[in-house]
Hints:
This protein is an all-alpha fold. It has helices at about 5-35, 40-55, 60-90, 95-120, 130-145, 160-175, 190-200, 210-215, 215-230, 235-245, 250-260, 270-295, 300-315, 335-350, 355-375, 390-415, 425-440, 455-465, 480-495, 510-535, 540-550, 565-580, 585-590, and strands at about 500, 505. α5 crosses α10, α6 (about 160-175) packs antiparallel against α9 (about 215-230) and α14 packs parallel to α17 (about 425-440).
Amino acid sequence: MSLKQESDKSELQNLYQKNRLFDNEKVDGNDSRKLINRVPFFVSLLAVLIIFIDLGFVHNNALRIIFNIYYNVVLLIGILSISKPYIKNRKINLSKAYFIDIVLLSALLLVLLYNVWIIITNSLQSTHSFITLFLVVSFFIREFFNLRMEINYRRLGPAQIFVISFFTIIFLGSFLLMLPKATIGNISYVDALFTSTSAVCVTGLNVVDVEFTYTILGQVIIMFLIQIGGLGIMTITTYFSYFFKGGSSYKNQLLVKDITNDERLDNVFSSLKSILTITFIIEGLGFLLIFLSLNNVNLSLGEKAFFSIFHAVSGFCNAGYSTLSGNLYDIRIRFDYPVHLIISGLIIFGGLGFPIIHNIWEYVTTNIRDIIKRVFKHEKYTYSTLVINVNSQIVIITTLILLIVGTVGFYVFEKDGVLTEYSSEFGKWTAAFFGSVTTRTAGFNSTDTGALTIPTSLLFIVLMWIGASPASTGGGIKTSTFAVAFLNFIALIRGKKRIEFAGREISQQTVSRAFAQMTLAILFIMIITFVMITFEKDKEPLDLLFETVSAYGTVGLSRNITPLLSNPGKIVIIITMFVGRVSLYTLLTSMMRQVKFTKYRYPTEEILIN
């Protein structure tokens, strides 16, 4: 090698090292900038953890003063963090999250000034206010949704993310329910884990008495766990992340498309918005109606308000939780039929599923707009292509049939049984209707479930196994699965090779998934029932089967044996509730590697069936 070549090589190496050093400095600079930008998030996260300690544990005044000072520091950081982009860009856009930022910024500034004045005048002896804690949590939520968290989509698909999100919330909820101020006395971790799983999986089975075991703080935690479990943590976080960031990546849109079961990619965030809007409108209306109907219950105004919001959330999310010791069979509300009917309506709407409610809402509003245009604006009639789709028709028809069959069956089998305590025929039919509705994965009980006759118990087992509808807050194998299986059964008897409904042909993939769901559910229930009979030898097999189906269908009804279960039995039911909520099909999908190459076919062979 010549001297010139060696010199050129040395220069190239030096240039490479300089460029490499420059790139590292650039990367380090970007990383440092990202770390600095995330300081408000970590500060607010620590504040939220301190709030849990502050509200959940008993501590002295010195520690409370430190907490109060830190809360105000977080308010100051929040003011600086939110105002920084607007000062930098020197413009304000009153759209999307910008309006919320302005409101939050104003609230943070006003509360901080007020807190500083209180601290100065009271020599640091002031206690925190609810509005301060609320603003700290609001700032944390804003910073959380502003994070740009990357997900490895090659390793984590929609099924894995769905399962992991529920798993995480359940364990977080179990630790929150162990806070000393969340309970009256002490409870075991198994009981806290059972309650958290039951709430997140919107089941409603209880091993402890909610009214006499959990404080208001504990009941509020349960309510939030129910709300998160009913909507799904991925639904909440994905939409608000999109809302605050003002956009989303193509990968995120594909993920949300699988979560919402939307057919169009450009509709995914619109669907998420509809889900959240529908939820809060129905729950808000339910809260108002329940509050106005509580005339015969001896509760203060604040207790009535909390009772109403708790049962509105629990009813729409099909959770079956109640703040009363005896659930809705409690003597204080046992014969309050308006409340029972309102909660029944919430259960039905929650069990229909968001796509069906959205489809019905669009159909109704579109036709109303057409009528207004023709009557008041004298416009010509324009034919709307928007109709109740086949999926909605199947779900609505199946739901109505199951409600009627359940109501009539309950009344016939129990008119001389548990319904005898109702003096009027209206009361008996209301209780029968409520019993039919609540088996659709709700879990409320207005009668003594342990006293049901065997025919009624078997009817309940079938209804709980079927459950609610897809993309709803309920569980079970789903109404559409049962309907497709029934339609396939009719088609086979009539000698047809395809399933047709309402002028449409049901795809073979839908039929295959329906039978897979049913088969997996039956096998899993059989195995869990066998395990429960092994662990709980002192319990009746029918009671254990009822408990297992109720847990798998995320129903929450029990023949009064849940509090009597041993710890191994509780753990088995915990697993059953989790599997029932995420569905065994989804769980297996998340665990198995998907086949990528299917563009080949073997010769077809007929297998003898009968």
